[in-house]
């Protein structure tokens, strides 16, 4: 999970898109921007206590159910 959050902070949109594709998750640049916005409040406490439900709901609304489940699996959310 932390790898995804760190990459969202340090990579540009195209790099994140390529990183996700290597992990088996296809993302559009628009989705990357929306995910970046939804996760900008990420903190180390998320690794301990879990990602807040409202953030998970935002991510699910961006990606849809299937890709959300896929992201959960590969990122460990």
Which secondary structure elements does this structure contain, and how are they paired or packed?
Elements (H helix, E strand, L loop, with lengths): L1 H9 L2 H10 L6 H10 L5 H6 L3 H11 L1 H11 L2
| Rg calc | 11 Å
Annotation field: number of helices:
6
Spell the H/E element sequence. HHHHHH
Low confidence ranges: none
Estimate nothing, just give the exact number of structural domains.
1
Strand content: under 5%
Largest sheet: none
Shape, principal axes of CA atoms: globular
- Total strands: 0
Structural class: mainly alpha
Question: What distance separates the N and C termini?
Answer: 6 Å
Average pLDDT metric? 89
Helix content: over 70%
Brief summary of the model shown:
The protein has 77 residues and is mainly α.
Write up what this structure looks like.
- With 77 residues, this protein is mostly helical.
- The protein has one domain.
- 74% of the residues lie in helices and 0% in strands.
- The protein contains six helices and no strands.
- The protein has helices at 2-10, 13-22, 29-38, 44-49, 53-63, 65-75.
- The model has no long low-confidence stretch (mean pLDDT 89).
């Amino acid at each position: 999970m932390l790898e995804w959050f760190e990459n969202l902070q340090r990579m540009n949109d195209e790099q994140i898109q390529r990183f996700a594709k290597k992990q088996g998750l296809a993302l559009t640049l628009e989705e990357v921007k929306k995910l970046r916005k939804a996760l900008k409040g990420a903190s180390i406490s998320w690794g301990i206590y879990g990602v807040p439900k409202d953030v998970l709901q935002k991510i699910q609304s961006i990606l849809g159910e299937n890709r959300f489940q896929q992201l959960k699996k590969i990122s460990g959310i």
